[in-house]
Every structure is written in structure tokens, then in C-alpha cells.
Amino acid sequence: MFDNEEKTNLERLGEFGLIDHLTKSVELTQETTDKGIGDDAAVLDFSGNKTLISTDLLLEGIHFDLRYVPLKHLGYKAVQVNLSDIYAMNGTASQITFSIGLSSKFPLDAVEELYSGALLACQKYGVDLVGGDTSASAQGLVISVTSIGYARAEETTYRSGAREGDLICVSGDLGGAYVGLQLLEREKRIFLENPNIQPDLEGKDYIVERQLKPEARKDIIELLRSLGVKPTAMIDVSDGLASEILHICKASEKGCKLYEEKIPIDPMTYDTARDFGLDPTVCALSGGEDYELLFTVDQGDYDKLKNQPDITVIGHITEPAAGTGLISKSGNVHPLQAQGWNAFRRV
Amino acid sequence: MFDNEEKTNLERLGEFGLIDHLTKSVELTQETTDKGIGDDAAVLDFSGNKTLISTDLLLEGIHFDLRYVPLKHLGYKAVQVNLSDIYAMNGTASQITFSIGLSSKFPLDAVEELYSGALLACQKYGVDLVGGDTSASAQGLVISVTSIGYARAEETTYRSGAREGDLICVSGDLGGAYVGLQLLEREKRIFLENPNIQPDLEGKDYIVERQLKPEARKDIIELLRSLGVKPTAMIDVSDGLASEILHICKASEKGCKLYEEKIPIDPMTYDTARDFGLDPTVCALSGGEDYELLFTVDQGDYDKLKNQPDITVIGHITEPAAGTGLISKSGNVHPLQAQGWNAFRRV
Questions:
Q1: Overall average pLDDT of the B114-131 stretch
Q2: DSSP state of B276
Q3: Is the pLDDT of residue A12 over 90?
Q4: Does the pLDDT value for residue B2 go beyond 50?
Q5: Residue B294: beta bridge partners?
Q6: Whole-angstrom distance, CA of residue B210 vs CA of residue B204
Q7: B99 is in an annotated binding site
């Protein structure tokens, strides 16, 4: 996809040259970073706090398609997806490592685009890039991100803390990233059949952005703190609402009741899903990649949350014997299923 | 390379099934691990110590060739290579995350082999496996390891601490991993030309193991502590002695003199290099993958180290103006060059 002539050559630059080139604009801003790139390991200081670690692998042809994903967006998303896991522990993300495997055919300015997206995410979220690995790849583009953060022991929130009667809440709205993906896939097919037809994504910015440029919900963590609400359990929505609430119920050894009519779905997500002949609720339950936060709170916290436009109460936690059910708009109970996203089925 | 029939199918198992299956034998043994696999992030407690983080990407066709690398060895090596970076900071490795991207054609028992090698390394080195990501790969096998450790502020050793007059020391011996690789590559070529000829690696166990199953030098870190020696600078030998000493000199803004005759080379490495028409010293300087520790110490520590069979003094640190030179056996001075290993040149 790239014009490779007249471009700086990775082979000539070499691994150390590429690392120097890419990292010269990396600035360290976090008090918890003692030493970033440039030694065998980064050195961090979380004096007294718990250290949080999470890691993700993003592989070309599985997690992204370079035919419609701009590289800067990809670098940005790779970081967001990973930071989201730290926020889901009610922690503060403070550092990442960013590793890439790429073909020597990849032009330098394409690598720069990817890296600039990662750095933009770091700047925006107050996170230092402290290391990584840069390697040739014999096949496609490989991205591996590890995020590091911290939290006080008493604020760390696990999946396992949900109690009977707790309210189930979710931030933002769901299903948009999945419907945005359907739109991008359709335009790709049209383009491949007839390259003269330009992609028609007009008026669909919101759901296309949900797919290409998700934002981890650091703001929700800060909002909950300012409201004095500590979730009893929390997880980020990467595989779809159904899969995530089942993780919380399993880890907490509880059941749940979700109400279909309460699930927040943006009108554009709703209408576009309908255009594709998809059930918007199914997109929210099983679509994934929304990177919203799903959490449970004590009923006593309801008054603090009820007027927050970005948080929706969608159900409650039950005793385990009650099972895990979705109450449909017509009042029927459907057992929740983690259809989620089975990457192995796609290859 | 694998017989795929009658084997448990990754597609049927799915991502969560595979993770459950692989991680059911993971035991947590480290006091610093609060929470391992099973939440959005691992939770660690380094109360008062610095946190160390390092990460490596290993890609099929670049870093390993599955035609002669047994999967269990590969899992073991992937972990060792990464732990080595934590020891090179004079730290204690305590946790890793282990991520894999693999084709759905990969049979389950092959994944188990890979994972069992990683777990064996963890057990042997007293390290907890606390997370990772498991994904399908559209191409080859992808392994990403992040290692986490800790050190007291005053014991953390950077590349930048070498002072004029410090002695340059290296653990073990050098060049073996590279010569072992030449042997394996030769046997692969012979096998590809005539599959009836079995590999002839008899009597070459040591250098084949140096390539396939390196051991990070945790023992050297412990030895130095017991001797009361704190290195002024340290790095692990992953890209070859020349490249590593240049990293130390650059970070410390110093020069160095290395003595060819002092460089420790095992007789089997020496003889096999000669058989291949290679200069054993060049194998030590530029071969890489030995995962020994290269460090500088104060001259006053010489008496504590001189009788240690596993540590060799190979030179000393000079003022920067003296440059970075190798004194050959014949007494000539050659400027050191970081030929190292340019992965981009291999693709």
C-alpha cells in the first residue's frame, strides 16, 4: 500500500538507528518514571502503591486491516485498548512499552505515523513511553503494548467484588464500534470491486471513530472518584457487554439481571445496525471493542450517579441461583451468552 | 510441521478456553504478586522498591526457525532472554506476562509445549506468570514477553555508571550461541537437501544448548551480592560484546580498552568456529545471544573477583578521548564496531 521509492530505508537505518529516530521525541513527564528508554529495563517508582500491569498483542489481518485503518489511528488505538485495562482496575495509567515488528519494506514515514499515534495517546492520557522492542517481521505488522499503572490498595477494583443487590452500570454507549466496523468492511468490499467508487462514510463519523479511534475512559475513573463512588467490581468492554458481565458474575460468584431497554445505544448505532439488518441489542451484547467501563456499585450510591449523563444503570446483581439473564423489551428472560469474539474462528 | 488430525482444535476451544486450559497449572509463588491472571491487569506490590520493566518480541522467521527449534525450548528461551534484562539492572525478576499469537492450525499440544517451556523457566527462576494475551495469528508464531522485577534504589545498576579506571568484566564465555546457530543452520541445509540424513550434533551439546536453551545469569547477580560487589554499570550480552561495551561507553561518556586474549571463549566454541572458517573472537564480539552479563567494577573490587571462575576481567574503562579499542593478541589496536545483529537486514 505504500510507495517505497525515495523513502528512507529501514534496512539502512538498522534497529538501533530506527529506535533512536523514533524515540528522540519521547518526553518523560510522570513522577513515577525514574528511567525510560535506553537501558536494559525501565525503572519506575510507585512508592507504596500497587503496581498494575496489562498487555495486548495486535496482529495485522486479525485485529486490523491496513487497507482502511490509518496508521496513526492504529498506534493511537493500540495504546487506548491497553490503557483501558488499567482504568478497569480503578488505577492510574502511568507508563507503556510499545513494541513493533515490521517488514523492512515498510517505509520510515509509515513507522513514524504509527509511532506518532501512540505518542499522541500517551500525551493525551498523561502516560510515559518507557520502552519497547523494535524488530523485523517476516510477515505482517505486529504491535505489542504493555501498560503499567498504579493504585492505592483500597481503591484497586477487581472483577470479583460484586455483591447481591449491587447496581450494574456502564459508561457511554455500546455497539458503535462493531457497527462502525461493518460500515468500513462494506466500503472496503465496494472499493475492491470498483476502485473508482470512493468510500461513503458521510454523516457516520461517530461510529467510524468508535471503531478507529476509541478513547479509554480515564474520565469515568476521575468522575467516580470526584463523586466518592468506589465500584465494587469493574471490567472494560472489549468483547461485548454479555461476555464482560459474565466475567464479573463468574469472578464474583453471583447472578445478574440486565434490562434490554436500559442498554445505552447511540441513535446512529441503532439506525445503522438496522440498515445492515442487525439487531442493535445484539451489537451491544456481542460486538465488542467499545472500551467503555462496566461496573457494579452499592445501591446506596444510586443518588450520586442518577444524574450523570455518561453513566447508565442497566441492571443489578442477584444471587447465583437466579442465573444470568437479559429481560427483553417484551418482558421475556433470555439467558446471557458470551458469544464474544473468538479470534481463532476468524483465521 | 505438525500432524493436525485427531488433535484438539484451537478453533473449538476458543480464546477463553485456551487461556483457561493453559493457565490452570500456573501457580503464584512470589510475595510481590497480589493478583495474577484473571482480571483486567495483574496487581503487584513492590513496597518501597523500584519497579523494573522490560519487553521483547520474538517473531517466527526472524528470531527462530521452527524447523529446528523445539517449542519447549523456544518458550524457555523467550522467558530467559527477557529475564536477562532485569538481572542486567542488578534487579530481582519476579513476574512475567507471556503473550502468543498463533495460527488456528497450531495443534493444542504444540501450544502446550511452548507454554510448558515458559512455565519451566518461571519455576526455575522463581518468577510468577501473571498475564498475557492469546490471539490468532494470520501468519507465523508471535511471542511477546514482558518481565517485571524490582530493586532497591541504591542497588539498581544502569549502563551509564562506568568510571575511568573501572575494570570491565564478563560472566561465563562468549560466542557459543552464535557458533551453535551456525551448526543448526548447517544441519538444516543438509536435511533439506537429503531428508534421510539425520542431524549430526554429537559432542556439540554445549554450543547447541547455548543457542537453544540459554540461561539468564541470576546466579551472577546473587554471587556479586554475596561478594559485596556492586557493579558501576551493567548490560546483558544479547547483540555481541562489541555492541554492548559500546552501549556502556556511550551511556557513561567514556572510552574502553578490551584485550582479545582475555575474552573467555569455550574450547568447543573455538574449535567449531575454526571448522566453519570463522574467527572465534569475531563470534564473541558480534555473534550475540549469549545472555551473559557485561559489567564494570571499581578497581578496588578486583581481589573479590579474581578467583571467581565464572567472571573474567577483559579490559578497563578509559577517558572518552582514548576511544573504544580492542588490543589484539599481536598487540595491534582495532577500533570496536557494533556490527551487532541488524534484524532488518535479514528480511
A1: 94
A2: T
A3: no
A4: no
A5: B170, B235
A6: 10
A7: no
Length of chain B equals: 347
Please check whether residue A154 touches B, CB under 8 A: no
CA angle (B283, B303, B263) in 5-degree steps: 10
Q: Which amino acid is at B74?
A: L
Chain A nearest C-alpha distance from B317 (Å) = 19
Q: ipTM of this predicted complex?
A: 0.89
Locus of grid cell 548490560: B235
CA distances from B39 to A93, A160, B36, B122 (A): 16, 9, 8, 20
A138 touches B at CB < 8 Å? yes
Please check the confidence at residue A13 and state whether its pLDDT lies above 90: no
Residue B124, Cβ density class (10 Å: 0-12 exposed, 13-18 middle, ≥19 buried): middle
Residue B236: half-sphere exposure toward Cβ, Cα within 13 Å: 27
Rounded to 5°, the CA angle B306-B308-B311 comes to: 90
Nearest CA in chain A to B10: A344
What residues of A are designated binding site for ATP? Answer: 115, 132-133, 159, 238
C-alpha span between A59 and A22 (Å, rounded)? 21
Per-residue cell: B209: 544448548
Residue A101 host element (H or E) = strand A92-102
CA distance B118 to B112: 10
Tell me if A85 sits within 8 A of A127, measured CB to CB.
no
Q: Which three cell numbers stand for residue B65?
A: 526457525
Angle A71-87/A218-227 helices, nearest 10 degrees? Answer: 30
Of the candidates A38, A42, A236, the beta carbon closest to that of B40 is on A236
What's the rounded Cα separation, in Å, for the pair A99 and A82?
A: 13
Q: What local confidence, expressed as pLDDT, does residue B4 receive? A: 40
Place of cell 501473571: B130
Burial class (CB in 10 A: 0-12, 13-18, 19+), B331: exposed
pLDDT averaged over every residue in chain A: 90
Chain A, nearest residue to B159 by Cα: A39
Using alpha carbons, list the distances in angstroms from residue A330 to A220, A259, A260, A280: 32, 10, 9, 15
Q: Hey, how many other C-beta atoms are within 10 angstroms of the C-beta on A1? A: 6
Cβ pair B149:A41 closer than 8 A: yes
Task: Enumerate the H helices of A101-240 as residue ranges.
Answer: 108-125, 176-193, 205-212, 218-227
**pLDDT tens-place string over residues A254-289:** 999 999 999 999 999 999 999 999 999 999 999 999
* Res A3: pLDDT: 38
DSSP state of B129: E
Alpha-carbon distances of A303 from A256, A317, A336, rounded to whole Å: 21, 18, 28
What DSSP string describes A260-309? GGGS---HHHHHHHHHTT--HHHHHHH------EEEEE-GGGHHHHTT-T
Q: Which domains does chain B have, with CATH numbers?
A: 10-155 (3.30.1330.10), 159-345 (3.90.650.10)
Longest distance between any two alpha carbons in chain B, whole Å: 66
What is the band of A339 on the pLDDT scale with cuts at 50, 70, 90? low
Tell me if B71 sits within 8 A of B114, measured CB to CB.
yes
Put simply, whether A65 touches B (Cβ < 8 Å) is no
What is the rounded average pLDDT of the residues B56-70? Answer: 92
CA–CA gap between residue A217 and residue A163 (Å, rounded): 24
